[in-house]
Design goal:
With 179 residues, the chain is of the alpha+beta class. The chain starts with a strand and ends in a 14-residue tail after the last strand. It is built from 4 helices and 9 strands; from the N terminus they run E-H-H-E-E-E-H-E-H-E-E-E-E. The protein has a single domain, classed as Aminopeptidase. 39% of the residues are buried. A hairpin with an 8-residue loop joins strand 3 and strand 4. Helix 1 packs antiparallel against helix 2. InterPro entries: Acyl_CoA_acyltransferase (IPR016181), GNAT_dom (IPR000182).
Length: 179
């Protein structure tokens, strides 16, 4: 498996993976909008290939905290997609780790995600709300554990807090429901 930054010429591969993984155009449309959104930049878009076939994608976009006293750099992981016939083979985990490693090297301190707690906790994420990080939109109590954070610098969580403000394209209530 080869993981690399997605080029502009690979946008169709990115959108194919998103559609195949989620079975709809919703996430593909979100990704397309985020790739064009100046407020999402810098963006890290990684594609996983099995030979010539695109099989996975992760998108990480810039975000910030409302508490201006925070001097941490943050990003949002959304979405992560792996086409169904190759799921459960470690592709998603490899995309997460390569993405987080690249973000860490570029100086990002914290990464947030709204996702399945059982999956993302295996990749070092922990519930963010109880640590003082508010999601862009309220997360119902029964899904509070799905709002998660991973520190890329050891003391980053202790030195930050506040509400996460993400890119305009994903700053819509419908993207902040964990069903």
């Amino acid at each position: 498996m080869d993981i690399r930054e997605a080029s502009d010429s690979e946008r169709n591969d990115v959108l194919f993976v998103e559609r195949a993984a989620f079975g709809s155009d919703c996430e593909a449309e979100l990704v397309s909008n985020l790739l064009e959104d100046p407020s999402a930049k810098p963006i890290l878009s990684l594609l996983a290939f099995d030979g010539d076939r695109a099989v996975g994608h992760i998108l990480l976009t810039t975000a910030h905290l409302t508490n201006k006293q925070n001097s941490v750099s943050i990003a949002l992981l959304a979405p992560l997609a792996v086409i169904p016939d190759v799921q459960r083979q470690g592709i998603g985990g490899n995309l997460i780790e390569q993405g987080l490693n690249r973000l860490s090297e570029s100086g990002v301190d914290l990464v947030f995600v709204l996702g399945h707690p059982g999956y993302y906790s295996r990749h070092g994420f922990q519930p963010a709300g109880c640590l003082g990080f508010e999601a862009p939109y309220p997360i119902p109590e029964e899904h509070a554990e799905a709002w998660m954070v991973r520190a890329l610098r050891p003391d980053a969580i202790d030195s930050a807090g506040g509400k996460v403000v993400c890119a305009d394209a994903i700053s819509q209530p419908e993207y902040w429901r964990e069903d």
